[in-house]
Write a structure and sequence with these properties.
Layout lengths: L12 E4 L15 E5 L11 H8 L3 H13 L5 H10 L6 H8 L8 H10 L2 E10 H11 L3 E10 L2 E7 L7 H12 L3 E6 L5 H5 L3 E5 L3 H4 L4 E4 L11
Parallel strand pairs: 2-3, 2-6, 3-4, 6-7, 7-8
Antiparallel strand pairs: 1-8, 4-5
Length: 235
Amino acid sequence: MIWPDTAEPRTTRLRPNRRRGPLRTPPRSGVKVALFDIDGTLTRHKSIWQFLMEETGVWDGPGRANLDAFLAGRIDYQEFCDLDAELFRGRAYAEVEKIAHEVPKWDGLDALFAALKARGYRVVLISTGLRLMASYFTRRYDIADVFANDLERSDGICTGRSLIDVGEHEKEKVVRDVLDRLAPDHVLALGDSSGDLPLFRAADLAVAVNPDERVAGAVHASLIGEDLAVLADVL
């Protein structure tokens, strides 16, 4: 595979990691799968949970306290998610979803997804975030495969409980199940954090969006900047 000339001045660039090993050039035909994280990868905000709490005025106080309790090991992942979901009890699900869809996103998404479609990739979204965020991408880009968590609702109203389909350390199992089912000839992975390492390990081409040093060492290339459209050069 020939990487784009990163010496050329541009706002966004791909930085290869030669230590990851040789790349498999994407085949012209066959089954090609793109495994995508969402928060921090397609969106500029690292957590849709936190974004929603900030926008609804409950982050400073209960939202931050829930996170601190989880990081300190005083509550487990399920309880953490349920406590966060409780902050949306009584709100219309559609209202919360509308707020989620307003989260800032990286540039170049339309161009990236158009290129993926043109080159025959099947996109799979895998996130520990929320389906009400994923729905923005599934509707806009006609994506059928989504694995994410959600807010429970009854008659369109959030109940204050969470629905966990992707646990804190369950992305690896999801990835394994997806690949067993689809049996791809080529896998592209796009993520941003250590939580996406299971995606990167399974990929023929793993790309991290603005990663830290640890994550950068685990991928074939790092995308540095704000425009995901540059990925079209290596699909």
